[in-house]
Amino acid sequence: MWQFNLPSSLLLASGMVSVITAIFVAAKPAFPGKLSIILMMVMGAEWSISAGLEAAAPDIASKIFWSQVEYIGSMFGPVLYCYFILGFLQKTKDGFIRYIWLLWIIPVLTILIGATNGSHGFLWTGFSWESREYNSLSYHHGPWFWVAVSYAFGLVFFGGLMLIQAIMRFPGYFRRQAWYLVVGSAMPVITTLIYVTGLSPFGGFDISPIGFLFAGLLFVSGIIRKQMFDLLPIAHHVILENLSAGVLVLDEHRRVLDLNPATCDILQIKNTIIGKNVIEMIPDLRPILERLSDNDNKKTEVKMTDPDRWIEVSLTPIMEKNATTEGSLIMLRDITTRIKYEQKLNDLNLQLSDSEKKLQELNAQKDKLFSVIAHDLKNPFNALLGFSRILHEESSEMGAEEVHKISGHLLKASRQGYDILVNLLEWSRAQTNRIEFNLEAVPLQELIAGSISNMEFMIRAKSINLEVKPFPETNVMIDRHMIETVLRNLLSNAVKFSHRNGKIILSAEPSDDFYSISVRDYGVGIKAEDLKKIFLLEYLYTSKGTEDEHGSGLGLILCKDFVEKNGGSLKVDSMIGQGSIFTFTVRES
User: Fold this and answer.
1) Average predicted confidence (pLDDT) for the chain
2) Weakest mean pLDDT among 29-38, 331-340, 555-564
3) Distances from the Cα of 530 to the Cαs of 302, 365, 423, 542, in angstroms?
4) Are 376 and 542 in contact, with CB atoms under 8 Å apart?
5) Residue 304 dihedral angles phi and psi, to the nearest 5°
6) What is the DSSP letter of 567?
7) Rounded to an integer, what distance in angstroms lies between the CA atom of residue 43 and that of residue 78?
8) Are 148 and 124 in contact (CB under 8 A)?
9) Could you give the CA distance from residue 582 to residue 455 in angstroms, rounded to a whole number?
10) pLDDT score of 581
11) DSSP label at residue 255
12) Mean pLDDT of 53-70
């Protein structure tokens, strides 16, 4: 049974850290040796994971298999390390680089010898259980094992020595970056030495791959804390010239010592500024450079002009051994796109906040609406219940005239309740977008005649004189249901607020590509201060008719919404005691 104990878990964790490090490095901008170090960490992951599985394997056969697999990562990793160092230090054009393929001979031979070890015993000559506690198997190493270990050590030592010699010439800031590489690279070597010398605290357990756990942690720390691989002071023509970020090197007097092409693009520099004062040549940088201290690492954003754009400015002091500042390194990144997206995000947040506020207002209005509707529905239903009870209990004792009178009251209350419910239904469907909008060519005369027919009873009940002014035969492009609802509400209001034996005028006149349809009454009129309320849901303005008719205040709001959905407009003119004129427009077909 597989035994995943502390040693095997450490090895598997080491493999995962190596994978994460490879991903971190892959995400960095291009730099010399990038592919080699990624592959090196992948090989480290292969070595660690294979070793972890070997440590947890339940039998000798499985352990031998995973030991053979381990040699792929343990032998290819040092070669890739040398490839990385040579690329990192820009040694790829040296004469001996043509023979670099020779570095693969011993690793390939080692893997082949490991795969066939059972027939010759060159890599290991036997096995014995070292520790049952840690499920570790002790390998009796053969002669080729020491050849392979010495070769791997030699490659790492060679690469590390070249790196140390190079970084001693780096400025302090960059030297600290590179030391993360040196110390990290030494970790697998140290753990391997502990293993081969028999000093491992876990018996015969091979802790060599755990070195990649510490190496990966150091590499990730260097990437995050020191921006390792962002900028290295080597191969100027490769790093600076091809770096996507702008780089400005200033002396202690803020004169430009060096810059790369990206800086010229970002700052829109057309002439050379080498040797000139950066503040004089690029005035937009003056506020930021005068505010930043040369003794601190700083990062800020500055808005440039001509053309307008945003630049991220990072200032790093260049320090010498005596801790004196010899100049500054400035990195520039064009963050205009990011700033624009942030501004859009802020705008969206403001819109969201406004929408939330409007939603709260609408909810409050909705609550008010239902409260008003519930109250207004009580009146017609109270009338219905009252007159129905009278009719039910006393109809046998009533004359025909009394029954006719009560039935008229019943019909009036039913009509009021029906109108309120229809408007409420239409409004709720409009608010939830459940009304299908279907434009069609409708004869204007047919539209008006149908609306008058539907309102004929109400008009006769108050003995209203309805005058329809003549208009030419034409078609209008409307949603029939919506405009019929508008006419029904306007005629109903005109009747409601007209005095008995009053007069209503219905007219339609052409106006450019529209027809203006007007409903005029000579009733009670509307106060000037109330005119602004009649189309707003927050007020739900309503008043009683001339014969105590009730309404919900929702009809005119619905009319305005439906007219505007049909591409028209609705307006009202009114004077107290002289009546009102409601006019809406519809498009001619």
Assistant:
1) 77
2) 29-38
3) 53, 18, 21, 10
4) yes
5) -95, 160
6) T
7) 9
8) no
9) 17
10) 95
11) B
12) 83
Q: List, in order of start, the domains of the chain with CATH numbers.
A: 6-225 (1.20.1070.10), 243-334 (3.30.450.20), 358-588 (3.30.565.10)
**The two three-digit tokens of residue 340, written as one number:** 């624009």
Q: Is the dihedral of CA 383, 385, 390, 391 positive or negative?
A: positive
- Distance between CA atoms of 440 and 168, rounded to whole angstroms? 85
In single-letter form, the type of residue at position 126 comes to: G
Averaged over 529-551, what is the pLDDT? Answer: 79
Q: Output Rg (C-alpha) for the chain, integer angstroms.
A: 45
Residue 74 and residue 195: Cα distance in Å, rounded? 14
Token pair, residue 367, equals: 């609550």
What length does the chain have? 589
Q: What is the DSSP-derived secondary structure letter of residue 29?
A: P
Q: Does the structure show a pLDDT above 70 at 205?
A: no
pLDDT band of 499, cuts 50, 70, 90: very high
| Positive or negative torsion for Cα 113, 114, 115, 120 | positive
Residue 280 DSSP SS3: helix
Q: What is the pLDDT of residues 224-268, one digit of tens each?
A: 665 555 545 444 444 565 667 777 777 777 788 777 777 778 777
Q: Are 332 and 311 in contact (CB under 8 A)?
A: yes
**Token digits of residue 393:** 């209990």
Kind plus residue range of the DSSP H or E element containing 384: helix 336-394
Predicted pLDDT at 228: 59
Helix (H, G, I), strand (E, B) or coil at 263: helix
Of residues 190, 155, 318, 154, the one with CA closest to residue 252: 318
pLDDT at res. 3: 73
